[in-house]
Structure formats: structure tokens, C-alpha cells
Amino acid sequence: MTLLELLQLLRKHLKIVVLLPIACALAMALASVLVMRNTYTAQTDMYVLASSEGESGGALSSDLSASQMLTNDVAQLLKSDRVMSDAAEDLGLPNLNAYDITVSSESTTRVITLSVTGADARGAANVANALAKNVSQVAREVMNVQSVNVIDEAPVPEAPSGPNRPLYIAVAFMAGLFLAVAIVVVLDLVDTRVRTSEQVEELLGVPVIGRIPEMKKVK
Prior knowledge:
The protein is about 55% helix and about 15% strand. It is α+β, with helices and mostly antiparallel strands. A 4-stranded antiparallel beta sheet has the order 2-3-1-4. About 5% of the residues have low confidence.
């Protein structure tokens, strides 16, 4: 099937090609409003202060690699069971399973970014701040860390961070469009009826020498 034939086929079934993507997009829009809950992301930044800095004041420049490794260790410590359970206990929660917690740190700095995503905006901010508070205490106990200083406390997010409803609707529309094209092509493949003289010539390989006009019924 050539591109021109495909375009002609789509034009022939224009209703399916237009209505099916719109229906899929509307269905996704309705589902995203009724089923998908808004999520909120609270973020806080922390700075890792090594114990040696308090003594010499210049350890970072002489041992930058070790400091960066220490920062990565603290980032992993944020996801440890002890820090999680201590933060949950401070907040009066059984656990933090309702929140999505991500930790990131750049390789050239000792700044750790903690992001907490949940269905409750204030709850996400409280969890982020509780984790930052507890990781500092645990890091001083088990690692060569003087403190983990909070640069900015996590504010209560005012706007939801997800779900990305426009993206989901666009994907649903494209999926409906591809489905419509597939349906049109399948319908054409299973339709073996001969409708025109050109199709007769193509199938039989002989020219058409005459045509019988359609007779209208006389009432």
C-alpha cells in the first residue's frame, strides 16, 4: 500500500480517524481528573560539613575527593531504614511508604538535594524537614561528619507537581490516532468486495468492455 493509497483510505474513513483519537483523549482527561490524585513535591537542600573542617578549616581543598565520597555516603544514609524510621516516629507516622523520596548530589559539590513527593502538600514538607533533621544526627554518630546543615527548609508546595495531565492526554490522543489507522487498514484488508471497474481489471487482467447501469426501482 502506497502513501497515497493510505491517505485515500483514511479520507474514506474520516469519521473513525477523527473521532477515535478525540474519544481516547477525552477518556484520559476524565480519568486523570477522577482517578489520578494530585501530588506535591517538597524540596530541601543540605550541605555536608566534614569533621576535619572544624579543626583545620581547609581540608576540603586538600581532600576534595574524600569529601565528595562522604557526601555520597550521606545521600545514601538518607534512604536508610534508621533515618526513615526516626523521621516517621518524629511525625507520628507508622512509616513513610506513602511518600516518594529521591536524593541527588552533584559530583563537584557537597550539596545534597532531597525531594519528597506525596498526596499531601504539608505532609511532604514535614517529611522532607524531618529526614534532613534526622540524617544530621545519624551521620554524626556513624560517619566522620561534623554536621549536615540545612540550606533551605522545605516549604509547603503551593501547586501540585503531578500528574502531568497534558502529557497523558497527548499520549492518549496519539495512541487513538494510531489505533484508528490500524483499524482502517485492517478493515480494508478484510474487505474483499469489488466495487469499481478498475478493481475488476486489476484482479482479472482483462479490460472491461461494458457496464450495466444500476436500475432504480419504480414505485
